[in-house]
Each structure stands twice: as C-alpha cells, then as structure tokens.
C-alpha cells in the first residue's frame, strides 16, 4: 500500500497509460488554446476532465493489489478505494460544469449570433 | 492596549494620530482666520473665477467627465497603455493562453 | 457531548441546508423568503464568530466527518487519517470570520437590491452554495475536499456571474471565467492526484508530515501555486477578475471578493503548512513577490483609466491582492530562518494577514456602494453620474471611508496594514515598498476620480429624483463600515487576537501536523 507510482510503473506497460494521460492533456489544451468554435473549446474542457479522471483511476491500480469488495478475503490486504471515490466525485463535477458551460454557449449564441471566440469580446481593456 | 500597535519597527496609535490631527486642524483654522475679511460682497470680488471665462448658469455643462480626468497621465503613458490594452484583448483563448504559459513558467522556475 | 465541539460541521452544514431548503421556502412569499435568507446567513455568522473565538488561544480545532468520534483522527490500526476532516487554526478562522461577515452583509444588501428581479430561488440557492464552498475551503484539512469546495464555490459563482442572463456581457464574463477556471481546476486535481499517488494520503497534515523534496512534489507544488494564484487574481492570469466583478450583482461581488480570499488561503496554506520543505529555498517566495508586484502595479495602472465604476474596482482588487501576495511572499523568504522571521518575516505576515481582513471589508463595502449607485441611477458609467452626494449622503459617507481605507490614508486600517508591508519588504529589497507606495498613490488618485465624478460636481437634471437607497442595502453597507472602523480604531486588539495568532499558526507547521497525526 505504500508503493509509489514510480515503483509500480517500472515496466513499459505500466508507463504507457500515463503517457496516454499526458497526450490527452496536451490534446485538450491544444483544442482549448487554438480552436475558435466555442463548442470545440467545450469539448477540449471535457477531454481535459476525462484525462484527469483517467489519471485518478490509474492511481488506484497497484501491482498485486486486490480491489475492494470483489476478491478480497479476510486475510488479504485490499487497495484503498479512495481513487474510485475521487473519480466519481470528479465525474459529477465535470458533468455539472460541462452542462453549465454548454448552456452558457447556447445563451451566448442567442445574444451574439456567433460561436466564434474572436467575436465575443465586448469586455476588454 | 487595544489601539496601540507595535511592529518591531515602530508604533502606531490611532488616537495619538487623531489628537495630532485635531491640533493641526486647530492651527490651520487659526491661520485661516487671520485672512482678510473686508472684501466687498456682491461685487466682482465675490464672483467665481473660472480661468477668466464666463461661468455658465447650468453647472452640469462644465463638469469634467470621469474619462477626461488624468488625461495628461494617460497621454504620457500612451505606449504602456497601448500594450496593456492589447494584453486585455477580451479574447478567451488568449486568456487561457496566458494562464497556461504562466503555469509553465512557474513550473520551470520551481523545478530548476 | 457539547454542541460547541460540532461547530466546524455546522459551519458548512447551515449554508448547505439553506441552499437546498431555498426552493421550498422561496415560494412561500416575500417576507418568509427574506427572513429565511437573513436568518440562515446570521446563523452562519454566529457559527463563524464562535469558531473564531475558539481559536484565540492558539488551539487547532479538528473535526472528523463520519467517524466513531469527531476527534478521533487516526482510527485503529491506521498510520494516517483516511476520513475527511476539518482542521481550523488561527489562519483558517481569520478567513472564516471575513467570509461569514461579508456573506451576511452581501445577503442583507441583496434583499433590496435584487427585489426588482425574478429568479430568487436560484439566486438564494447559489448564494448559499457559494458561501458554503468558501467556508469549506478555509476549514477543510483534506486536499481533495479542498478541490471539491473550490468547485462548489466556482460553479455557484459561474451561475451568479451570469445571473442577469439577458445581458450579453454577464454571459461573456461568466464563460471566460469558467473556461480558465475549469482548466485550472483540472490541473489542481492532477496535482492532488499525483501527490496521492506518491504518498497515499490526501490529508494536508499527513501529507505535510511525509513530504520530501522531489520532482513530482515540485511539479505538484508549481501546479497548485499557479492555479490558486489564478483563482485569487495574480497578474498575468487576472483577466477574468474585472469582467466577473463588474457583471455580477453587487451583493454577490462582495462575497466573490472573499471567495478569492479563500483561494488565497489555500495558496498560503499549501506554501507554509504542506510544502515548507520545498518553499523554504526562496524560489516560491520570489515567485509570489514578483506576481504580487506585477498584480499591484499593472492592476492599478489599468484601474486609473477605467470609467465604469465596478470594472475600475475590479482592477483595484487585483492590485490589492498583489499586496497580500507580496507580504506573504516576503514571509516565505524568511521561513525556516529564526532570525529572518524575527527581523522581518513575522511583520510581513502579520501585515499581509491584516490586509486580508481589511481588503475583504473595504473592498466589499466599495462594491456595495457601487451597487447602491447602480440601483439609484441605473448606470455604472462614471461619465453619466454626478452630484449624487446631495441625494445619497449615507452612501457617499460610507464610500469616503472605504476609499480612504483602500488608498491607505491614515488613520484608516488600510494604512496600518500597508505600512507593515512597506517596513518589512524594505528589508528584502527597497524597490518593493517603492512600487507598493506608487500603487497606493495611484489607488488614491483613481478613487479621488470616482468620488469626484460620482458624488461631487453640479447636480444633473436626470438625477434630481434620485433618493437614498432602501434600509436593507444601507444596513449591509453599514456592517462593513462598522467593521472597517473597528479595525481602524482597535488595530492592537485585532492584531493580538487574530493576526498574530494566524501568523504563528502558519509558521508552526509542526503544530498543524500534530493536530491530526498526534505525537508523531
């Protein structure tokens, strides 16, 4: 239970998942920073949220660990279910923000008549 | 000592400051009372002086709007303000970019 | 069992209960709704004040959620706490006091201010949620729980910024804030997750006791510092602040100011209590100082040329946050060196914490005054106002007090805290107080402009019928005025009981660990 990430992921297969997380984060940031369409920016935010959730789920995996409830016998040590709880909470939060963000986009489109982020610039200076 | 504050560099006491303030105000009022009181009322000596111009009846016409105050300061700092206004472009992707760049910079500084 | 022991739970429970009761209560008529709103905010305030007095003697309150006993941090056989727990020391209680007072004042103000508008159910619910989030942020002792509270208060604030959803500017401000805020929140979660992956602990005290310097810790620290600096409005990431502060209903802006203070709390807590091993080197201290100086200077430069009253004040918020970042950054430079702490570090920290409280009150008051002007005249543009001191003498008087305090005119409280920051930052580098003083002068200049443009000058024809705002709004403003005046008249008492305590609590990071981990 006290193993750190570094120990559990010494092999390539273990590290690959973290590389995927990093790729997803970079892709999400790329779409947020370069895309002009508000919906595409929202997709970027959603991908960023999912990649962080993926990272949290990965943290729950410990080599040789047994997931709680299913396989654990009385004498075997189980992995703490904390990352799963964190992920559930984070998913709920991401859902709420995505819904709110999309509703804001709808209202913005109603008022400004555009989805282009360059044209939504009444507040500046 | 509810109103005394010692900082290690000095002391601050709001009531001492207020006492001093009232003493100085007394002096100021005394000096003011030494001024001449013998000007002639309801003559030109009583008129408002407005840079030699005629004072309009409607005061609202001569008030300085807020965006005109500190005009000189703004003109003198024009290049800086041009830069700052360009920075506050109002573009959400620019703002997200500033954030990501700052995170990266702070990350580099903390790492090395 | 003593009810007094359960105060930390009540602190978050009362506003949360209020938030979810609102949809039922709000349909029972205007009077019931208003009484309910004020009553719940007053209860929160009472809990906040009693929590604050409980930590006057330097105690650290710990409350375990869902355990066999509220004080049992380490259940049998566990070497670190697994439950969510609240940990409130002098610093946390200082923030709790600021937030609960500002929330109460904002609620009183909103009753009259929002009376013309529909959507009260949503407004009250979100207001309660935002209060709960901000209070939770400054009470929690668990990093993930901190993230959750950050998100609760942020999502509530997105809703409240866009509350007037028929105005395109509100939607735009809310969207811009939300976009960056979501990126920031995810990076914060990433940092918290990596710390969990390495140490298997989310509790701040437990993490602090196990933490060693390493690459992963450095990356996490950098992410947390920059995200929370963004949330409290440090310079290159401040752009959401004037937009959001200007477009929010004023009673909410007053609370929004303290919510950003709660993020500041998180930033300082992380730097001082969790990562002292990494922040002692000076890099993080200098990062905070540089961020603080840039926020101070550029914030006030932008404020001087604004002519929309709340946007101007929004830019001032950035420069005021700069003072606190500067002060606590200077304190961080001295951390770990007993002589430096005694020479200038403690003064800087006390000054910074004093400024935290001053800022929440006078800035809240300024935003409420701006709201009163908007309520009475229907415009936020200073060019269109004028001569309002005759019509609104009380608002004008309270505005003068707040403006003098924020500009650091003696004898007001703003002067005292700024003076302590000048003195202590001078020891580090003479340029720092020079920059801070220039900022202070420009602050005074822009508030002279606001006062001249809005309150002085000849009366304008269209404002002849303008009257003083209703009593509820005046009461909200009066609370903050009284707090500002109390801080002005009795700085010694507040220093001895609140700020000294908070600064010592920050310096004593072993005490913070001990409260959770016991004797380890």
Describe this structure in words.
The complex is a heterotrimer of chains A (125), B (112) and C (520). Chain A is mainly α and 125 residues long. Chain A has a single domain, classed as Orthogonal Bundle (Helix Hairpins), CATH 1.10.287.3510. Chain A has four helices and no strands. In chain A, helix 2 packs antiparallel against helix 3 (38-59) and helix 3 (38-59) runs antiparallel to helix 4 (82-112). Chain A is elongated, with a radius of gyration of 20 Å. Chain B has a domain at 1-36. Chain B has helices spanning 14-33, 71-76, 78-87, 92-111, and strands at 4-6, 11-13. Chain B has a two-stranded antiparallel sheet with strand order 1-2. The longest helix of chain B has 20 residues, at 14-33. Chain B is flat. Chain C has 520 residues and is mostly helical. Chain C folds into two domains: 1-277, no CATH class; 280-489. Helix content of chain C is 75%, strand content 2%. Chain C contains 20 helices and two strands. Chain C has a two-stranded antiparallel sheet with strand order 1-2. The longest helix of chain C has 40 residues, at 338-377. Chain C is globular, with a radius of gyration of 22 Å. Chain C starts with 6 loop residues before the first helix and ends with a helix. Chains in contact: A-B, A-C, B-C. The interface between B and C is large, with 46 and 67 residues.
